[in-house]
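re the bet — no i am not wrong, look at it urself. input seq straight from the record:
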Amino acid sequence: MLLSPGTRVARRGDTATVAYVGPLPPHEGTWYGVVWDRFERGQHDGVGPDGTRHFSCAPRQGSFLPASARLDTGVSFVDAMAQKYGTGPEVRALSVASLVGAPPPPALADASCVYVRCAYPDGATGPMPYTHLGTIDLSRSLLADWDEVARIAAPLPLHTLVLQQVRLRRAMQVPAAFAQLKCLHLNDTRTDWAQALVLGHAMPALTTLQLAHNGIEALGPSQDAGAAFPCLTSLHLGGNRLRSSEDLGAALQSIASLRQLLLSGNELTHITPMARPLAQLDEVHLADNPLEASSVPVLESWMAVPYALVLPPLRGDEEATRLWAIAQLPRLARLNHTPITPHERTDAERYFLTIASPDDPRYGALCEVHGAPVRAAPRTLRDNMVDLRWARAAHAPAVADVPALRAQAQQLSMLATTPVRSVLRHVARACAAPRTASLWAVLAAEPEPLVVAMDDGWQDLAWYGVQSGDLVVLVD
């Protein structure tokens, strides 16, 4: 029996949707045109060998398979449960079930992998014996639409449903079978925000929604988000292609119950102010976004309560970012999963005052808390000078020679960053010494001076530890 377009199939660990059934000139017989769930699994975009387009998909996502090819079309939920968990009385106490399809190559499937395609075998209906089944994982299944998912959910006390890497047809309306559902995982399902709103209206108790890795670029206007998600507390939008925080703010503004917003791995570059804060939002994840540091303080307008943040490095490294973020965000209570103690906040804010410009928006507020910082006098070039004495000797100096050398030494002032080769050239010119002369330093130390050969002309005086009052000896 031939499959019809829209049928979900699996082949060698990869899942696909049948998009075409028919001839494929110049080949003989009947062929299936399939669209693989995994990008670049196929060879073309739906065009046959003779140039005829039979269906459309992304480049290298389509394939043609002869109708005789071995394709797995899955089993019913009831049959899959019986195969994996049995049919004895103990199945009634089962609270969690995992009926996950085989992973795509190169991962290896195990004996527990099963493709679920429908609720009941042969279109039957009726009660299910799983009276305590509250969590089901149907990831990588062959379910094709929300009607079939509803047939599975309707007779169960379901509160958590995992449908990751499943391709369900777009629904304009979803059956009322999810009244108790609290957690819905739709990562890597290509579910967009508009479809999520449709689902939300059928799931009034939903508190957690995961929409990660769905290629979402924007949420778009959604004035009814609050009505769709009256109880939503956690929204996972990580790994998408979101670019506009203004779009995000407008879409989420009406979800009054939202507390956790996960946005890691998107393309956000800046944060725009929220017209009014989200009353309960207290955790935002922004790791792996190309954020401009200057816009992060605007996050204060998104939250009305103390909150937690996960940020990418914005100021060179994680430690510098932490100090800066704590000083800039007065209600930040936890950063990158680590609580901020009162002592740490005080240190960070006081340090920030020593480096911040008085024009910084936080400068005045922090001065009111900690007082204005005492500004050090501006450094001048003179502050970087070392005042030395130099003398000339016929041989490398020893500690016993130091008093006599100091007695005949002359004054010399140089920058601490002056290379030794420049000091040598200057001193040799002053006393007409040969170019083969070498330079030694006599450094103040206890219990006796330290004599050092300055034999690397590319290093500077500071590198050798030379300070004001030390003696430099030119040896012919």
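see?? Residues 112 and 136 are 14 Å apart (CA to CA). told u. also The chain has ten helices and 22 strands. so pay up
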